[in-house]
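Help wanted!
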Amino acid sequence: SQTIHQWPATLVQPVGSPLSLECTVEGTSNPNLYWYRQAAGRGLQLLFYSVGIGQISSEVPQNLSASRPQDRQFILSSKKLLLSDSGFYLCAWSVRQSYEQYFGPGTRLTVT
Amino acid sequence: AQSVSQHNHHVILSEAASLELGCNYSYGGTVNLFWYVQYPGQHLQLLLKYFSGDPLVKGIKGFEAEFIKSKFSFNLRKPSVQWSDTAEYFCAVTRTSGTYKYIFGTGTRLKVLA
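Answered by r_m:
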């Protein structure tokens, strides 16, 4: 069966520090991959999605970037965190040509 | 731009009460519709989905939703809630024109009192 992993589960980082969140999927090949953020009191906002290695689409201009170095690995990064980057970050995957997405456990990021 | 509205942000019900959570979307074309649920400490998981056909869809745990195209709505219902239904519920929409990107609503926190 397919599983999706995210780490770390929680993270507290100072303003101006770098960020790297990792997401990996097991049990499937060539998935679509997605990064979402849920800020306090707001819904899930799509940040990035990827349909293949090295193929990243950005949905919202911001302080973050994403990379997909391997087929089942999706990384969310920042060079310098802002307070507004605090939130709950979710990774998701879907089978190609499918509308159903499957979500990871999420990372709660607090920028202080 | 596409958007999804969930007007009930917090709902508190007693066990056995009926539940209806509203979801409205703004997009004039054909859509796919989803309800996701996040139980405390668990992953976001699919509750039910609508792609086409019968506008009344049934999901897991006794939930159902009705797609009313003329009202751009996809409300979630359950006749009798249980304490274990305490969770956050999200409505989501995708277009059927080949994009697989979800637009989520802001979510509804449901608390069921035992």
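OP: Thanks! One thing I noticed: Chain B touches chain A at residues 4, 6, 32, 34, 36, 43-46, 49, 51, 90, 92, 94, 100-107 (CB under 8 Å).
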